[in-house]
Amino acid sequence: MGETVDSVKSIQIRQLLTQAISLGMIVTSSLIIWKALICVTGSESPVVVVLSESMEPGFQRGDILFLHMSKDPIRAGEIVVFNIDGRDIPIVHRVIKVHERKNTGEVDVLTKGAHPTKKSLRDETLEDYEDLQLIFEQGLATGKNAIGLGDDTDAPTFGAKDDEPFELDPRSFGYAEKEGSQASGFLNSTLPRSRKGPSEKQPLKKRAKGVEGGESSNSNMDGDNNPGDDRLLYAKGQLWLHRHHIMGRAVGFLPYVGWVTIIMTEKPIIKYILIGALGLLVISSRD
Amino acid sequence: MHSFGYRANALLTFSVTALAFICAIASFSDKFSNQNPSAEIQILNINRLKKQSYGNDEVSLTLDISADLQSLFTWNTKQVFAFVAAEYETSKNSLNQVSLWDVIIPDKEHAKFRIQTSNKYRFIDQGHNLRGREFNLTLHWHVMPKTGKMLADKIVMPGYSLPDAYK
């Protein structure tokens, strides 16, 4: 009797161990595949999920991007994923300006979002831009004009394009309702915008006159849906991106698949349910 | 072996694999399309060439851009992102690319267009190198597929230049 119990117990222990090991194998082999992908693509994060709508209509929220980081130089028009110091979520935007140094080959890059044809984008981004405006006011702007009311640039000015802050379209920062909207069609000829808006515009305008960094390589980038460039998103005082900020270039794209990750991040209970169900499946598959 | 769990698992695995395969094939089919886009850009006017108060040169110009990108659209194309960049070399920088204007083309009908516009983004140099500078205007396009690999190409139009003095 005692022997039967012992033999039954030992079989159960062996099965348990076998299952634990096979579970471990599954986990470690997926880890191996992930690390191999990192090596092959040269990017720390070879697959990313698009979280914001700043690249619509090209990339919707929930799409997956495949990244690759080759030694090729960064060129205008590429869609890159980059990290800003102090922010943990990388950003996917498009390069609009490239300045490459002769001697070192290093690169200055500026990026950008896209066109604000969607009113919801203007309203939704307001929160972030208010924060960014605080950062902006503290340090990036230098100039003779104070931030305030009654600047002479409030008057309508036709044709003086050098005063026009094309990059800094305040429409996108949620001020459009006050100025009278200028919804831009898909292909509009951009005559200079004549009306200067209320004083909230001044801080944004000052950013353009801020100190131009003359540092080595810079990248300027854009998301396809924001009218201004990304300097507001960079770290304080940073005007350009450099190669080490960039995690990879987007080379491929799969729609909708990323929603799984978004749902699991925003509702972690689903993650626990899934893991619990998987665990149950493994344990119950003893036969 | 015939429980609900196993069947659901097998079904899910198979459908995901099949979908991935179909996406890959859709992307692969893009290789077989003949593409011959064309474009022409004229500079209508150089509105301003000035030195900004804190140092760098800036240009404002009006362009006449006409292009026919209809052959880039296939059944797997979601949109085409096209932009015009000024490219030039300076003594300090081996390459400068400044995007002047861009557009998102959602379908084939909009892909043949002609537009006269001033530059959407500011053309600012790092330094004072723009007087008398010769530059290329390049029309780049990025084809964003419904699924799969993104393609990018360009047409380089050389021979444009800026005035010799600030104006």
From TrEMBL, chain A:
Q: InterPro entries under this entry?
A: LexA/Signal_pep-like_sf (IPR036286), Peptidase_S24_S26A/B/C (IPR015927), Peptidase_S26B (IPR001733)
The text of the family note is: Belongs to the peptidase S26B family.
Q: Does the keyword Amino-acid biosynthesis apply?
A: no
The family database entries (PANTHER family) matched by this protein are listed as: SIGNAL PEPTIDASE COMPLEX CATALYTIC SUBUNIT SEC11, SIGNAL PEPTIDASE I
Plastid listed as a keyword: no
Extract the ranges annotated as region (Disordered): 153-172, 184-228
Residues forming the Peptidase S24/S26A/S26B/S26C domain are 34-97
* Source lineage: Eukaryota, Viridiplantae, Streptophyta, Embryophyta, Tracheophyta
Where do the coiled-coil regions begin and end?
none
Q: Which Pfam families match?
A: Peptidase_S24
Which subcellular locations apply to this protein?
Membrane
Cite the entry's keywords alphabetically: Hydrolase, Membrane, Protease, Transmembrane, Transmembrane helix
UniProt catalytic activity: Cleavage of hydrophobic, N-terminal signal or leader sequences from secreted and periplasmic proteins
Name this protein carries in UniProt: signal peptidase I
- EC annotation? 3.4.21.89
TrEMBL record, chain B:
Locations listed in the record: Endoplasmic reticulum membrane
Q: Which UniProt keywords apply?
A: Endoplasmic reticulum, Membrane, Signal-anchor, Transmembrane, Transmembrane helix
First-listed, main subcellular location of the protein, grouped into a coarse class: endoplasmic reticulum
Q: What is the membrane topology here?
A: Single-pass type II membrane protein
Top-level lineage group: Eukaryota
Q: Which Pfam families match?
A: SPC22
Q: Please give a single GO biological process term from the UniProt record.
A: signal peptide processing
Q: Which GO terms describe its cellular component?
A: signal peptidase complex
Family assignment? Belongs to the SPCS3 family.
Q: What is the role of this chain?
A: Essential component of the signal peptidase complex (SPC) which catalyzes the cleavage of N-terminal signal sequences from nascent proteins as they are translocated into the lumen of the endoplasmic reticulum. Essential for the SPC catalytic activity, possibly by stabilizing and positioning the active center of the complex close to the lumenal surface.
Q: What is this protein called?
A: Signal peptidase complex subunit 3
Species assigned in the record: Brassica napus (Rape)
